[in-house]
Automatic annotation (TrEMBL):
<keyword id="KW-0998">Cell outer membrane</keyword>
<comment type="similarity">
    <text>Belongs to the Omp25/RopB family.</text>
</comment>
<dbReference type="InterPro" id="IPR027385">
    <property type="entry name" value="Beta-barrel_OMP"/>
</dbReference>
<dbReference type="Pfam" id="PF13505">
    <property type="entry name" value="OMP_b-brl"/>
</dbReference>
<keyword id="KW-1134">Transmembrane beta strand</keyword>
<dbReference type="InterPro" id="IPR011250">
    <property type="entry name" value="OMP/PagP_B-barrel"/>
</dbReference>
<feature type="domain" description="Outer membrane protein beta-barrel">
    <location>
        <begin position="14"/>
        <end position="231"/>
    </location>
</feature>
<keyword id="KW-0812">Transmembrane</keyword>
<keyword id="KW-0472">Membrane</keyword>
<protein>
    <submittedName>
        <fullName>Outer membrane immunogenic protein</fullName>
    </submittedName>
</protein>
<dbReference type="GO" id="GO:0009279">
    <property type="term" value="C:cell outer membrane"/>
</dbReference>
<feature type="signal peptide">
    <location>
        <begin position="1"/>
        <end position="20"/>
    </location>
</feature>
<dbReference type="InterPro" id="IPR051692">
    <property type="entry name" value="OMP-like"/>
</dbReference>
<keyword id="KW-0732">Signal</keyword>
Length: 231
């Protein structure tokens, strides 16, 4: 009897130890992914609008010198690509195509002969503009302040019409430089909001309309807001 009780005790103890070994769970190591913040690397395409102040300087037939300002709205598309580095610096390229509404008008009186004076109106209009710029930014999680600069071009239209509404015009493309600063904010992983200030100098161009010669110089200051989709 005693031997039977000892054998039973040994059997129960062995079964309990085996059961205890079975309930021990082995977990594999799961790598922990650190949150390094928003990534700015990639391309984007968006729409922008804003306010524009344009300054036209006119030299008419080498005699009249006028300078006028014009306020207007702008709207267009922009896109580009960003490269983010480990030190959170960002290098990118940015391009835009914009419709502009800035224009200026002047009235002239011209002595045709000793007895006749001709009255006419002249208009300079900034029709569209485009720019290709390099950007240098700094990633602050969802914020990315930046500076940008590059080459800019615009189409300028000069028109004249007299009291009888005889109309003539000439278009030319003007090329200069642009520089500015702004900030991008990531509304979501694939959507960004942009606020930007930009100064542009399109240089000077000569326009010839009939017997009239205009040397036009154009500069602009702009405040832009845009929304872009990232891909």
């Amino acid at each position: 009897m005693k031997k039977l009780l000892v054998a039973a005790t040994i059997l129960v103890s062995t079964s309990y130890a085996a059961h205890a070994a079975d309930v021990i769970m082995h977990h594999e190591m799961v790598p922990v992914v650190m949150n390094t913040g928003h990534s700015w690397t990639g391309g984007y395409l968006g729409f922008e609008t804003g306010y524009q102040n344009a300054r036209f300087k006119e030299h008419f037939n080498g005699v009249h010198h006028l300078s006028q300002k014009s306020d207007g709205l702008l709207g267009g598309i922009y896109g580009g690509y960003n490269f983010e580095f480990r030190n959170r610096m960002i290098l990118g390229v940015d391009a835009n195509l914009t419709y502009n509404s800035a224009r200026q008008n002047n009235a002239y009186s011209m002595l045709v002969n000793t007895n006749t004076t001709s009255n006419f109106n002249h208009e300079s209009k900034l029709e569209w503009s485009a720019a290709l710029r390099a950007r240098l930014g700094f990633a602050m999680d969802r914020w990315m302040p930046y500076i940008a600069g590059g080459v800019a071009t615009a189409q300028i239209k000069n028109s004249i019409y007299d009291a009888n509404y005889n109309y003539q015009s000439d278009r030319n493309n003007m090329t200069g430089w642009t520089a500015g600063a702004g900030v991008d904010y990531a509304l979501a992983s694939n959507t960004t909001l942009r606020l930007e200030y930009r100064h542009t100098d399109y240089g000077r161009k000569t326009f010839a309309i009939d017997n009239f010669t205009y040397k036009t110089k154009v500069k602009t200051d702009e405040f832009r807001i845009g929304v872009a989709y990232r891909f």
